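Ticket #4471: structure output looks truncated?

Reporter: J.K.
Steps to reproduce: submitted the chain below (671 residues) through the standard prediction queue, then opened the result file.
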Amino acid sequence: MAKKKRTPEEQTIDPAAQQMLIYADELGISTAFTRADNLAPCNIGSTGMCCKLCGMGPCRLTKEGQTGVCGATIDTIQARNLVRAIAAGSAAHSDHGRDMAFTLKAVANGETEGYTIRDVAKLRNVAANYDIPIEGRVPEEIADELADLYISQFGQQRGEVIVTKRAPEKRQKIWAEQGVIPRGVDREVVEALHRTHIGDDQDPEHLLSHAIRTSLADGWGGSMIATDVSDILFGTPAPILGEANLGVLKDDMVNVVVHGHEPTLSQMIVAASQDPEIIEYAKEAGAKGVNLSGICCTANEILMRQGIPAAGNFLHQELSILTGSVEAMVVDVQCIMQALVGLAEKFHTKIITTSPKVKIKGATHIEFHEERALSTAKDILRTAIDNYQNRGTTKIPNIREKLIPGFSHEYINYMLGGSYRASFRPLNDAIISGRIRGVAAIVGCNNPRSKQDYLHTYVTAELLKKDVLVVETGCGAIASAKLGFLLGEAGLEKVGPGLQEVCETVGIPPVLHMGSCVDNTRILTVLTQMVEEGGLGDDIDQIPAVGLAPEWMSEKALAIGTYCVASGAYVIFGGSSPVSGMPDKVSDSDEVARYLSQGWEEIYGGKLEFIPDPDEMIRKTLGHIDKKRADLGLSEYKPERFGRSGDARMVELEELPLSARREAIYGVAAD
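Returned output as attached by the reporter:
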């Protein structure tokens, strides 16, 4: 039976995306949405039970007790496949961190064009974490030594990745007892590949222990390094006004969309787009200037630092080209669809690849190197401007939403207490008192096999009603931005009474945008600082917090989820499980899935579960938060106690007569 084709309303909740999907259908153009409808996933491969690691296979296991040609069991094959996926995800994010460390080294030695050290304070703070001397030294000298230290973490063969010392002390002891502290980022990725080679590691639990170690090399290694260096070079994010969705594209300007993950490229294109020479070149071509916007994690990088608008998240990359208004889509690494080139040929858009690691057949390649960063960025923009004359009919949805991104962990610390008393104490106290029931980190990708943005925003909306503070990164953050959750005044009437008090008092949105996917390490830092502040236990696994990736699709997401579990978090993935049981349902054997949940929870206090139903995600999230509250001896969550204080309440009280005001505040009538 042919798979039912979904309507645009069934494919996405975003009205701008719906418009473009209708337009694509009228033109007879396929997108990721239609390809997902037309191509059914393999039910053997999707559950991790197909092994193709040697020439004797592929071995597709479909029956109880069946093994591969070499005798490998279902559990071993599932564990090997998962470990390889986690290794690939860790390699991608950590390679980003390596490149950032090399850029920092080059900037410190004056070998780049256009880059400077923007946040000297963060440079000094980070260096001090590793006992790098800072007094009496110029920033470049400190940066050079820090860069050398960070670069060494990737190739070192013995010892411990030094960034792991920033985890809570108790957590470090657990890792040491389990022997999972990474020795070097690259070593753990290489060992993961070695262990999963034909004839090597065959114990599922032993394999999954190395999955933990490999993921930690990412979360408390490469990714954290990437975030540190990005902040040092480009500035630590603070709240800034921005916009999101396809309506940010402009009919009267040269539209350049940057897509991928490397901030070294995107930040320089931002600078080049504001150069008077480039603006004049665009005007000579008949445009008013250059309009820059982002897709995916590159969007988050330039949104939270520069306020550059986001054209959308992962599934908007094709839709932006469909508008006919994009002169160039400039890509670097990760999450870039090969379908872009074929689609762009139907319009006038140029797909420009820039990374030495990524080429797409049919795309224009302008390789980007830091020593010619600004010059190359200008060359890219001139190429886009020259293409403006080829633009035909445009169809830009008039849909966009304002948002406030940029809540780095440093700014959260500041916003809770100001310059002189910056502290996580108010956040901890709000959780202890029950005003905030708990915290949810909702992160991750879009997946065209589900309704775009629906799982992200539905889960977010329901948790906000229950006084759960939400922090978000990556494509999930852009999903909430498009729905208006990232504005302070937006939707507070739909937020629980305790959380509403906190948002009004502090002046924050109910959803905090914390950056790109590598910036999930900011969430780890926030959780660590909450532990250090006191009152919520002595390790991350005791905090009433849950991580969710409702629309996951990439190997990077699996790596992120695993290092969060290793850090003590309960992590819920939506969609399908890569380690589910037998597709024919004849077996109830789910050894690997059980171990990711029960086994890891016994060891690390965190667990990983795959739950496709959003209501069940919400139920289990709230259940976990309430259990952690009870374990800490905190008061039972009772929302009726709150909602009558904060800024809005103060305005109400000012309008009352003095006697009534006193009674309202103190509960006694005036004499």
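Triage note (M.O.): checked the attachment and the full token line is present. Residues 8-60 form one domain.
Status: closed, working as intended.
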